[in-house]
DNA sequence: TAACCACCGATTGCATCCAATATCAACACA
DNA sequence: TGTGTTGATATTGGATGCAATCGGTGGTTA
């Protein structure tokens, strides 16, 4: 889905094809926050920005629409998708059911070196830094914990959900500060511990409570969706 | 996603737009079996068949690719997606986690009349008929049981999974015959019973065992994927 | 005889041009 | 003064034509 370094499914996307390349560029801009929800995307403007015609931009927007990142209205235009609180909560409900399954699948093939790396990441997060580093390390931690899974369709659905909620996750973290998310460190350690013991059920339940906690936190801060 | 009558999410797809209309037509052909997995889809051929240019066909193929129904290779062509046994099993693993959630969400708003209708459908299936009727009623039963859910993203993911596995479900049923799926009737009755008692946990577990049974049956008949 | 290379047809990807549609502002009218 | 209507403008959707790329076939050579 994404050609960036922070990808989950590295399927060979022919980025030689302009429409896919453009889709990746726009996607990155949405994910890193330079394109905020509600902002309009004009085909002509982006076409000349990327030095291409409007056709590949149009197709790129279609791709992003199916990712849920862009909302298209016929004969009218394209906007960066805006999520309501209900939609975001729904995404977390789905993640709560699916990510444990992905973690379980990954655990089947997870080697000790990767578990050590996860441990190191959890410790590094605890050292504390700025919000952007916190978000980056958190993403890295979870993606690495899923990296040994061979279930590509599942990974793709989950990556989609991560992407579509990314903006609101950042907004929430910026709002409450990382010190308010200290409890996440405990969750991460619990997950690493369960993985090291090769206990899939325990790993699942630790991850469930981690995701559920974030969901309820988001519900307590509806101003993120204003 | 789909403009046909057998749709789950009736979001206003502007079918005035040619690319969406064409996507629906091709999707229907894939779902009803007239376009089998592995078959090639030539842009020019389908363009003149639908009385349009190649551009909307190309965009329609992109849409179908993101639905997982079509596989695109750059500068080479498009084929109806073919699933391996592993991919199909993976789809069922995901369904096993997600559909119970959708059923639970639906149950919150399900009225008694709909439950009666589900009961009637379960009975009608038991009366027995040909394979095609069996498949149609089964689909109708489950979609109706989900119809009161307001979680659109969840419904969309599940519809996608149904669509991508539809061909293999049909192949399996044709192979073993409907009499071999008598046990499904019991599952359906269990689900209706749990819904009538407004017991979400019981409804979930009945549905889980229903889906899991189908998954293991599919694993026992790998020739479906030959 | 088998393997390798060059060429050619077929098919898709992209750019340019034209048509259709929505948005917005000015204007007439009650 | 408020409202409905109508026109101009901006923006997207689609058709045609050309360039780029892939797959197969024939010929050549070791």
Describe this structure in words.
2 copies of one chain form a homodimer. With 226 residues, chain A is mainly α. The first copy, chain A, folds into 2 domains: 18-80, Arc Repressor Mutant, subunit A, CATH 1.10.10; 85-225, Four Helix Bundle (Hemerythrin (Met), subunit A) (Up-down Bundle). The first copy, chain A, has 9 helices and 3 strands. Chain A has helices at 18-31, 43-49, 54-66, 85-109, 112-127, 131-146, 152-176, 182-196, 200-219; strands at 40-41, 70-73, 77-80. In chain A, strands 1-3-2 form a 3-stranded antiparallel β-sheet. In chain A, helix 1 crosses helix 3. The longest helix of chain A is centred in the middle third of the chain and has 25 residues, at 85-109. The model of chain A is unreliable at 1-14 (pLDDT under 50). The A-B interface holds A 14, 16-17, 55, 58-59, 62-63, 66-68, 73-75, 87, 90-91, 93-94, 97-98, 101, 151-154, 157 and B 14, 16-17, 19, 55, 58-59, 62-63, 66-68, 74, 87, 90-91, 93-94, 97-98, 101, 151-154, 157. Chain A binds a DNA duplex (30 and 30 nucleotides) through residues 17-19, 42-44, 52-56, 58-59, 73-78.
């Amino acid at each position: 889905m994404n050609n960036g370094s922070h990808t989950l499914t590295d399927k060979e996307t022919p980025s030689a094809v302009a429409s896919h390349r453009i889709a990746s560029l726009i996607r990155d801009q949405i994910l890193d926050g330079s394109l905020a929800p509600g902002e309009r995307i004009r085909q002509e403007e982006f076409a000349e920005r990327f030095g291409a015609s409007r056709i590949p931009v149009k197709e790129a927007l279609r791709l992003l629409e199916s990712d849920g990142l862009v909302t298209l209205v016929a004969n009218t235009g394209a906007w960066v998708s805006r999520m309501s609180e209900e939609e975001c909560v729904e995404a977390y409900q789905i993640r709560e059911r699916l990510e444990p399954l992905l973690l379980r699948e990954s655990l089947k093939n997870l080697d000790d070196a990767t578990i050590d790396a996860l441990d190191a990441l959890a410790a590094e997060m605890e050292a504390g830094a700025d919000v952007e580093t916190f978000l980056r390390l958190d993403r890295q931690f979870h993606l690495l914990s899923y990296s040994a899974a061979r279930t590509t369709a599942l990974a793709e659905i989950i990556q989609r959900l991560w992407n579509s909620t990314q903006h609101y996750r950042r907004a929430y973290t910026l709002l409450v500060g990382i010190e308010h998310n200290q409890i996440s460190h405990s969750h991460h350690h619990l997950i690493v511990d369960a993985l090291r013991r090769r206990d899939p059920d325990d790993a699942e339940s630790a991850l469930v409570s981690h995701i559920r906690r974030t969901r309820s936190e988001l519900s307590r801060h509806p101003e993120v969706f204003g």
